[in-house]
Design brief:
The protein has about 45 residues and is an all-alpha fold. Helix content is about 55%, strand content about 0%.
């Protein structure tokens, strides 16, 4: 099974959703899910 990774653009949009107080709980759940699939930064 291929590893799914959220794109940088999608992760950025998801981050905006989480920071916006006006978005629904369902939107925040989807945004959190997208961010959890983002590849970790390599330091």
């Amino acid at each position: 099974m291929a590893k799914k990774v959220t794109s940088k653009k999608a992760a950025s949009a998801a981050s905006k959703v989480l920071r916006d107080g006006r978005t629904s709980k369902a939107s925040k759940t989807a945004a959190g899910s997208a961010l959890s699939q983002r590849e970790k930064r390599k330091n």
